[in-house]
Amino acid sequence: MTRTIEYGTEQVVLHLKGLLSVGALKREVSIPYKQIKRIALEDFKVSMLQFRVGTSIADIRQGRFLIDGRWCFVSYEDHQDVVVIELEGHDFAKVVFQIDDPEDVIARIEAHLG
After folding, report:
1. Rounded distance, CA 101 to CA 39, Å?
2. Coil, strand or helix: which one is 53?
3. What pLDDT, on the 0 to 100 scale, is given for residue 78?
4. Which of 14, 59, 95, 106 is 20 to 30 A away from residue 39, measured at CA?
């Protein structure tokens, strides 16, 4: 997978590489731990017709999507079992992404939340 997570002391960074970064029009998303309101593993389906800045083909979603009047960053090829991070005071209301071993990613982020 061409998504990786960097766990810093103050923030977590989602890195996108290769064609994912092209499709999403972004190479990384920084998320300060203090702005994380909730994190979960969910099914998160976004309509192909949703207003976006990025890519929406078949079940592939990459980029910024306007959902319920707020911008969300979405990066997945399959909407099932994706990490959903709800944020407060961030440019994005949610950051949603597919990654290998999502349960471990969630546990590691939760460990930083205290």
Report:
1. 15
2. strand
3. 94
4. 59
